[in-house]
Amino acid sequence: MNPQSKLSGIFTPNLVPFDSHGEINEPELRRYIDWLIEKGVHGLYPNGSTGEFTRFTPEERRRIVAIIADQTRGRVPILAGAAEANVRETIKACEYYHGLGIRAVAIVAPFYYKLSPASVYAYFKEIGDNTPIDVTLYNIPMFASPIDVPTIQRLSEECEKIVAIKDSSGDIPNMIRMIQAVRPNRPEFSFLTGWDAALMPLLLSGADGGTNASSGVVPELTRKLYDLTMSAQLDEARRVQYDLLTLFDTMIYSAEFPEGFRAAVELRGFQMGQGRQPITSEQKTDISTLSRTLQCMLSEHGFTNEPIGGCATGITEELG
């Protein structure tokens, strides 16, 4: 791979708006994609966990990526989730996305069945040997078979088409071990963190960027954190990291994932519709609290006005 095309920066795992019938709201999705690009994200990451890829059919997943590719028109690179239920269908997805001109795909390790490291290696080796498109490994051990450091190192040495890993474990020391193991022989190999709380510390430890759920809600702040960290403005970067963590915790714990993120995107002016996962009335997001928290955070950084009644001296105090 050409080092100039290395995957780096913030790849936003976009959500998908639904219409009143529970179908993909294409016009709103296109508007949302334009907004994310205008706010400065480096790339887009459809069909991720935040994008609820398991709640779509294979045909819908391909349609989502096709819509985004058409709307993006090369303005930013796309890292498309290509995981299917088995290796043959996953390779077919890789072929389809390659035909769309997508920059790379992200593939989660086998899920449902918990596999041994040897089986995880064999799965990705089969993909790496047969894919026409660059592959990003996706490690999310809370939902799928983990990809351990020896497996990552071996795959990086044997498969030229495997060019990156996205790690959503939140395990900072383990990701540092990945970087130590792979980078000496594959300096162009990319490391992306999918855990919002780990973005700043992992950028400082050698990671190249992130696929952070908060960037679909406050892309301005995630981009700001990336820029501040990479330019060594660490005091200001630390403050933004803390604020992003507060928002992230509010969204992830206020409802079943990713309903809090969907509610927050709606507060930024998009009609997201009802998600496909049925929820009880007791599980519904407290929109009022989430709205006030989001508005206070954005006003602190100059993106909007304070809500009526003002904000507490710091978002953490307000939430506490």
Automatic annotation (TrEMBL):
UniProt KW Lyase keyword: yes
Stretches assigned to coiled coil: none
Any one biological process term the GO annotation gives: N-acetylneuraminate catabolic process
Keywords: Lyase, Schiff base
Active site: Y138, K166
Residues at which pyruvate binds: T50
Record bears the keyword Translocase: no
GO cellular component terms, A-Z: cytosol
A single MF term (Gene Ontology): N-acetylneuraminate lyase activity
Protein name as catalogued: Dihydrodipicolinate synthase family protein
